């Protein structure tokens, strides 16, 4: 009951967009009851909102280890992976093919992969402006992907846009 109370308090802070306090309460819930997948899932979602993607991924993976059919946390895990530019590695549509959020996640991942493929081809053609465009679009979906940022910075430098390249790097 104590852990559930902490979770509910975390939910209240999350709803108010006070993610730091939500994080604190979800952590208390986990400390009280460390084998509950939803507590890790909630904290993972909170960490995503705080831009702490690596920690969020750890919590999401722990939640999946505890309950691999928990669709909501699979979506959070997918968001974490996508933020790093990782290919989708979850079974969202297998679990619930009518889940519109899962369908959107798959569509977003396909979009990122498409921009990545176009960028590879255009880099070989030395069309660096188009690579920068593709990386900007991909980074909208994968904001923590160092690989995309480095490629963008490299292309900006090759275009002679050194201050922008330095900023991105």
TrEMBL record:
It comes from the Eukaryota. TPR repeats lie at residues 3-36. InterPro entries: TPR-like_helical_dom_sf, TPR_rpt. The keyword Repeat applies. Keywords: Repeat, TPR repeat. Pfam families: TPR_11. PANTHER family: DNAJ HOMOLOG SUBFAMILY C MEMBER 7 (PTHR45188:SF2), DNAJ PROTEIN P58IPK HOMOLOG (PTHR45188). This is DnaJ subfamily C member 7.
């Amino acid at each position: 009951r104590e852990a559930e109370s902490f979770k509910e308090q975390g939910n209240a802070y999350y709803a108010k967009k006070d993610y730091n306090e939500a994080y604190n309460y979800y952590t208390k819930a986990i400390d009280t009851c460390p084998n509950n997948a939803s507590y890790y899932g909630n904290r993972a979602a909170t960490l995503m909102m705080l831009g702490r993607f690596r920690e969020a991924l750890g919590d999401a993976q722990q939640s999946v280890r505890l309950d691999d059919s928990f669709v909501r946390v699979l979506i959070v895990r997918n968001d974490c992976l996508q933020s790093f530019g990782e290919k989708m590695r979850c079974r969202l549509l297998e679990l619930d093919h009518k889940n519109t959020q899962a369908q959107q996640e798959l569509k977003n991942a396909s979009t990122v992969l498409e921009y990545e493929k176009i960028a590879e081809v255009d880099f070989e053609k030395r069309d660096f402006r188009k690579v920068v465009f593709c990386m900007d679009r991909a980074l909208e979906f994968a904001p923590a992907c160092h690989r995309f940022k480095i490629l963008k910075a490299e292309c900006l430098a090759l275009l002679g846009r050194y201050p922008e390249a330095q900023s991105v790097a």
